[in-house]
Design goal:
By secondary structure, the chain is mostly beta strands. The protein is 9% helix and 41% strand. It has a single domain (67-307), classed as Peptidase G1 (Jelly Rolls, Sandwich), CATH 2.60.120.
Length: 310
């Protein structure tokens, strides 16, 4: 809307007020930062890539979606291993790597991966990605642990009616008859897992209990559960992709494990450390090879699992 120009009297009054404001000292402003300024200057840790070594926290991460929870993750520790060891090829209903020693020596295993995009058909199907301790036999590694408890933590995908559902889970067999989804203690909400999220999982033994942890490094959500266990049979550490033998394997291109660590006999090192040997295992369902496993990378802490067949 068009406004008329101000009158002369209006201009005089305005100039008088301006001179009065300029000549009057302003009250001293508070130097205390505002809440918005405090938030702007607060230190924020953004989780990127594979986790690096952090000091062991006194308290396990709380199940809150915060970057600080990711920064507090306690990684496998021990006397450092040097060099690389041998891998023996094997076949199983699992796909991945297994490191082993005499009973009662594995105290920690961990790794990270990028959650794959999964294509579902109409038929039910699934796939699990996990790390674990126990329940593996190997002549090459000199261990007989099958039939004893296994502790696992990772992510899973279920295909129902052509749709893929991703979730985080843990399981302590035979105590848990099936995988247990991580939930918060308050509202029971599950961890959100989406294709492309960088995930991290660990199983740790100490003080007569197993602690199973899954972290979504892309969102900062960390979930952890501790269950008591004797821990006498801890002969093997596993980095695995698996499916159900009686149903199709959910389709994906590949899963790349990285940052694979294990504490074995008090020594910490990557999957391929010289302090222990390991099995590289491809997954078969009957006479069909469904998953193929690559050699370890140059650092010995990563490998790829490739989908071949339903």
């Amino acid at each position: 809307m068009h406004r008329p120009p101000p009158s002369l009297s209006t201009l005089v009054i305005s100039l008088a007020l301006l001179f009065e404001a300029c000549g009057t000292p302003r009250a001293q402003e508070s130097t205390a930062p505002t809440a918005a300024a405090s938030l702007a200057t607060a230190t924020t840790v953004t989780p990127t890539g594979a986790p690096t070594a952090f000091p062991l926290p006194s308290i396990l991460p709380s199940p809150e979606a915060t970057p600080s929870a990711v920064a507090a993750l306690a990684h496998c520790t021990g006397r450092p291993s040097v060099g690389t060891g041998d891998s023996f090829h094997a076949v199983s209903t699992w796909a991945g790597y297994v490191a082993g020693e005499p009973p009662g020596s594995v105290s920690c295993v961990e790794a990270s991966w990028v959650e794959p995009t999964v294509t579902c058909d109409d038929a039910p199907a699934g796939v699990d990605i996990w790390v674990g301790i126990g329940a593996y036999d190997s002549v090459d590694l000199g261990i007989e642990d099958k039939g004893h408890p296994i502790q696992q933590a990772g992510t899973g995908v279920d295909c129902e009616d052509g749709l893929a559902e991703h979730y985080a889970w843990h399981q302590y067999l035979p105590r848990d008859s099936e995988d247990q989804r991580f939930r918060t203690a308050g509202d029971g909400g599950e961890m959100v897992v989406e294709p492309g999220d960088r995930m991290w999982a660990q199983v740790r033994y100490g003080d007569g209990a197993f602690t199973m942890t899954v972290a979504n490094l892309s969102t900062g959500d960390v979930r952890s559960v501790t269950q008591s266990g004797a821990g006498r049979h801890r002969s093997s550490a596993e980095w695995i992709v698996s499916g159900e033998a009686d149903e199709p394997m959910a389709r994906f291109a590949s899963v790349m494990f990285s940052g694979g660590l294990v504490t074995l006999g008090g020594i910490v090192g990557p999957v391929g450390a010289a302090s222990w040997n390991r099995n590289r295992i491809d997954e078969w369902a009957g006479d069909i090879k469904r998953l193929r496993v690559s050699d370890l990378n140059a650092a010995g802490d990563g490998f790829r699992v490739i989908w071949l067949h339903r």
